[in-house]
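Continuing the series of single-chain predictions for the mutant panel. This is the parent chain; the variants come on the following pages.
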Amino acid sequence: MMQFMRHSILVLAALAALAPSKLAAQTLSAHPQSARCFLYRGKPTVLITATEHYGAVMNREFDYVAYLDVLARNHLNLSRTFCFYRELESSIPPLGYANTLAPRPGHEALPWRRTGPGQAADGGLKFDLNQWNPEYFARMKDFLRQAERRNIIVEVVFFCNPYNDRTWSWFPCHRENNINQVGGGITDFRQFMEQHDHKIVDFQKNFVRKMVLELNAFDNIYFEICNETSTRMKPRDPADRQAAWHFALAEVVRQAEMELPKKHLVAVNAHQRILAYEENGKEYVETGDTAYFDHPLMDIINYHYISRKVPGKGAAVLDSGPVETGNIWAFLRARRDWRKPIVFDENYSGVIRGAPAIWDRNRMEAWETIISGGAGFDHLEWAFTPQDPTGSGKASLPDGRRLDGARFRSQLRALVDLWNECGPDRMGPSYDLVASVPDNSAGFASSRNDGKMHVIYVGDTRAEKAGFGGPIRGAVSLRLPKGAYTLRVLHSGADKWTALGSRRAGEAVTRIELPEFRQDYAMVLAAN
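Parent structure:
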């Protein structure tokens, strides 16, 4: 009997020892062999999505279940949500309250109770930063739970750049908005993103610790410290101060999770403009990402607007240019040896300030990102609004336009399904596969590590005013390994593949004639 009991105790101890690893295996994590994808529930995963403007939890008028259903139907698997940063009705014209990050006053869900005495800048009672708001955490957890049921990962963004004094004046930690005397040491909104005021830093650390503890049970999350941290200054010193702030808060995440069962990835948004050099009267800048790739506390490097960053020397770029095909490929190629997942975490999607939607460009950005080795792509989709959480044109914007992103999302689904079929951990950029492409286009390729599958993508390189979207004619020449292949193609804007029989590759390059197309054209060659 004693021998049986000792055996049972040993078995229970062994099971207890295994439990944390089984828990960890379900949680989103870095892939041990590939920086071009993640592991989620034990499966290699790339993150591809079209998301609302990050206010799903905070904006109580937004039906996030309807929104998540739309993502799930299109096999999209990521959403971002901001924890308490919010915007004003006037922040992004012409959206007004169609911007999910701009809830109508009184319809916001925030992490702290509003007790007063006194009135905050938004007209509500002042916050007591020592009292948590149970409604907020219940809503956050339900959002994450609903996302988890649909296999959707959520990037939980702790903080956001205040951008200007007016938006900063609405922060709960602004000195005029709380009863706790927090925020009085901030004289410039940029100081929120530095270790400048010890009361603000304590507030930030307490908030990060609270979020980590509350959300530890979820497998389908990762944390981003701050959205678009930037001084908008060229010197390196301000960027270094913001990097140190990132590291201090990432350390809070690590310490808080030390005794918890699940460990979550930490992302950083490399969004600086540090002067690298000048050439021909142009200033080339660095994003500040080198410090983050080298630091063990950071797991994911997020970037915004990569398609507008014209490549320079090394990792430097000419920033804020027009969206151009080929910029993403060059940007990621310059970072191909940096072994952390890269996510194109927000793109420019038009619409704001009366600009037209540019869904064709956005589709091309998604393809170029994933083929270039990106581990994720997040399209900022203005079609999702509190008035229409399905993003299907059921409600108009204040300027009268109706945005229907359904077709675009089905196009993304074709990319998602292809990459899952290929095996995200087995795919990687193929820099020499494409020998030539038609005029006015660029070609990009990704190949599986066993050589059995090759994805080739051709995109229009012309600017908007120089013929973009006009017809493209010609052929693609490929340096394929010798053998027989089946060919299927995805015509521009389509979401279904067309089989085109077989092709044989010999000693020389393989030439494939393309039909006339506009914007883009994708091909898959699978070895027989």
